[in-house]
Design brief:
This protein is α/β, with parallel strands linked by helices. The protein has seven helices and seven strands; from the N terminus they run αβαβαβαβαβαβαβ. The chain has helices spanning 3-8, 20-31, 52-55, 69-78, 106-127, 156-174, 204-218; strands at residues 11-15, 35-40, 59-63, 84-89, 131-140, 182-187, 223-228. The protein has a seven-stranded parallel beta sheet with strand order 3-2-1-4-5-6-7, with helices on both faces. α3 (52-55) links the parallel β2 and β3 (59-63). Bound molecules: NADP nicotinamide-adenine-dinucleotide phosphate.
């Protein structure tokens, strides 16, 4: 690689990259020549670690449980001086998604609200100053987060937590009227992962490369958008 190419190399931080869509985001950015920081929970080896051999020094694996504010602050310290072109908060959980809200336990509801709404915003609020002017801050939302499109119910606690994420991201965006950064909430489609299950309509390869295309094409646009993997606006 020439020094000119090195200068142009961009960096993405993918939060929640041990498996599923987050792992695929790391793979896709590496394939496109980016330097990637990917986070995992705990010390255990994950499929992300299998990429280290081929990625070399373009992949840095960091540890982060997004539900632990001290770990978010510690990651911010460790990444001081690492300018990010993309911060993508992907981590999320779905618990008892078959239960209507009246049957969902308080613990499951609270855990989804914390991990899917509060914690991603804490990550963004803590790490946003690492994102370069003109960079992108994205969070993995869901088509289920759309209040306007909710005509069928289902996944009710999860749906509410992702709608909360969208609302909190709107509040964050509203506080930054002169921000030069691009803010995105992404609906990746229903994808076959541990969370999406075997009946999901899309393979990961049909979702994540398109998601990265959307992030790339939106770079430089100011304001917050809620988009699907095809770059189409999803109704709030
Ligand atoms: N699959 C779909 O159809 C679909 C559709 C719409 C939106 N989404 C969203 O896309 C994102 C990824 O989903 P997926 O299908 O890839 O799910 P997945 O296979 O269950 O993977 C979830 C990822 O989130 C991480 N995670 C969960 N809680 C965390 C925490 N407290 N701190 C740090 N990392 C945490 C997991 O890490 P561990 O390995 O440590 O558990 C894992 O890397 C989620 O936000 C999900 O809601 C998925």
């Amino acid at each position: 690689m020439t020094s000119n190419e090195q200068q142009k190399q961009q960096t993405a931080l993918i939060v929640g990259a041990s498996r599923g869509l987050g792992l695929a985001l790391v793979e896709e950015y590496l394939k496109r020549g980016w330097r990637v920081v990917g986070t995992v929970r705990g010390q255990a080896r994950t499929p992300l670690h299998d990429l280290e051999a081929s990625a070399g020094d373009r992949l840095l694996i960091e540890q982060l449980d997004i539900d632990v504010p001290e770990q978010i602050a510690a990651l911010r310290e460790r990444l001081q001086g690492v300018p990010l072109d993309v911060l993508f908060v992907n981590a999320g959980i779905a618990l008892d998604s078959d239960k209507p809200i009246g049957e969902l336990g308080t613990d499951a509801f609270v855990r989804m609200m914390v991990t899917n709404a509060l914690s991603p915003m804490r990550v963004i609020e803590t790490l946003d100053t690492l994102v370069a002017p003109g960079g992108v801050i994205a969070a993995m939302s869901s088509g289920l987060a759309s209040v306007g499109n909710n005509t069928d119910g289902g996944w009710e606690g999860y749906r509410a937590s992702k709608a909360a994420l969208n609302t909190l991201m709107r509040s964050y965006a509203a506080r930054q009227p002169v921000s030069t950064r691009t803010l995105l909430l992404i609906a990746p489609g229903w994808v076959r992962t541990d969370m999406g299950g075997p009946d999901a309509t899309l393979d990961i390869s049909e979702s994540i490369p398109r998601v990265v295309d959307v992030v790339t094409s939106q770079t430089g646009c100011s304001g917050l958008q809620y988009l699907n993997r095809l770059g189409e606006t999803v109704p709030w």
